[in-house]
């Protein structure tokens, strides 16, 4: 019985680490979407650069299990979008304005993927709770 309860706790802790990582991923994606149309505050300057979350696995010694964590958030090195808008205050000397390298379609796809992974972790926690409840119900009878 002791191993069963620790397995339940490990399942919940592992799923919780997934929830934390996906929540962090969604925060980065929402930051990218929020800045999709921003420009540099200075003429000819660089605008917001898209951020890309990474994940890493780590051994949790108290659980004796691998858990996921949100790793470094790296800047996307792809080129900025450039539009010719000479009247824009952020335009350079040739009239071009740099816009962030954020593609809303890519961000929404990533958001949907993060949401599905988040929901899968929530389902793991719910299933584990149901199993614990069923076990307690069996022990009561």
UniProtKB/TrEMBL annotation:
Residue ranges of domain Flagellar basal body rod protein N-terminal in the record: 13-39
Subunit relationships: The basal body constitutes a major portion of the flagellar organelle and consists of four rings (L,P,S, and M) mounted on a central rod. The rod consists of about 26 subunits of FlgG in the distal portion, and FlgB, FlgC and FlgF are thought to build up the proximal portion of the rod with about 6 subunits each.
Gene Ontology cellular component annotations, sorted alphabetically: bacterial-type flagellum basal body, rod
Stretches assigned to the Flagellar basal-body/hook protein C-terminal domain: 94-137
Species this chain originates from: Bradyrhizobium commune
Chief location of this protein within or outside the cell: other
Any GO BP: bacterial-type flagellum-dependent swarming motility
Key words of the record: Bacterial flagellum, Cell projection, Cilium, Flagellum
Name of the protein described by the UniProt record: Flagellar basal-body rod protein FlgC
Subcellular location: Bacterial flagellum basal body
Domain of life: Bacteria
Protein family according to the UniProt entry: Belongs to the flagella basal body rod proteins family.
InterPro entries the UniProt entry points to: Flag_bb_rod_N, Flg_bb/hook_C_dom, FlgC
